[in-house]
Amino acid sequence: MKNTYNFLLECEEVILKELKDDVPLCDVYKIVREKIEKERPELANKMTNNLGTALGIEFRESTIAITSKCTARAKKGMTFQISIGFSSLDNPDGKDDQSKVYALFIGDTIVVNENEPCAILTSSKKDISHIAIILKDDGGQDDEVDETPAIQPRRAAVEKVRADPSAPEESRQDNQKTLLRRLNERAEVRLTSQGDKVSSEKARKINNAYKSEGQLPQDPDIQDLKLYMDKRYETLILPINGTPTPFHISAIKNVSLAVEGEYIYLRINFFHPGGIGKQADTIDKENVYIKELTYRASNDKKDDVVPASNNLSHVHKLILEIQKKYKDQELER
């Protein structure tokens, strides 16, 4: 168990070392995977599939994750919650079924640097001598735990980040203001830049459910300009300026339903170019992109007539179901 835990610390150290500015996240995952397959191949199938996600406006940005398929690149100043672990490990010293199987998991919050290992924001001692509790049997004497740190590079990284723990509050605030100013400057340059080129390797697959308007489902809800979810083709049909307009489920980022007084509001957010997510590099100047749409319907029920808000509630439920199904299918590919 001790050797496996020390090896887990080594794997996290690889993440801290390889996660740098402009490095694809899938490459970081690949390097860690190759290390495990080379040094401890029996642990390869027991490793976690996700080695961390970016933190920001979203608590966890699912489109920026350290996985085998994520081609997004890390940028200097990004904050990540990194984590790695092994599950279903065998403990030959276990005396019952519960103690014969165990798992190991560690994590940290870090900031990406340009040409240096990541800075650790949640620095703490993780050596086996500092986190393990050794229970001695009656009359027995356990071997003394080695006090030598298992991972020397990690200690160096921690000491570097915490070089001045007694820094005054004013210095920290000045540093935060400087970082904020730099981030705003970079954001302004990114948003005003017009010279981005679309990479053919990153071009996102376009899902076209219908080749022409005549292939739209002949459903009364569509004719009445109501929202309609086509389960067969995983496509949401929305009335826009009196025209039924289809959107594949892969274009929808999230949906929310809110009740305000006598009305129900359905808000639909779409993936769109210009962000850091999936479609950051797929801007086509000839197209018009929609960031979000909001539909409102009355919640009043008069003369036993079904309220218009039922359509929004029903479509909201179907979108969540189809989204979950679509994401599961993508993970299996």
UniProtKB/TrEMBL annotation:
Comp. bias (Basic and acidic residues): 156-175
UniProt cross-references to SUPFAM superfamilies, sorted A to Z: Creatinase/aminopeptidase
InterPro entries: Creatinase/aminopeptidase-like, FACT_SPT16_M, Pept_M24, Spt16
Domain FACT complex subunit SPT16 middle: 227-333
Domain of life: Eukaryota
Cited Pfam families: Peptidase_M24, SPT16
SMART domains, A to Z: SPT16 (SM01286)
A single Gene Ontology CC term: FACT complex
Function, in words: Component of the FACT complex, a general chromatin factor that acts to reorganize nucleosomes. The FACT complex is involved in multiple processes that require DNA as a template such as mRNA elongation, DNA replication and DNA repair. During transcription elongation the FACT complex acts as a histone chaperone that both destabilizes and restores nucleosomal structure.
Similarity comment text for this entry: Belongs to the peptidase M24 family. SPT16 subfamily.
Name of this protein: FACT complex subunit
Species in which this protein is naturally found: Adineta steineri
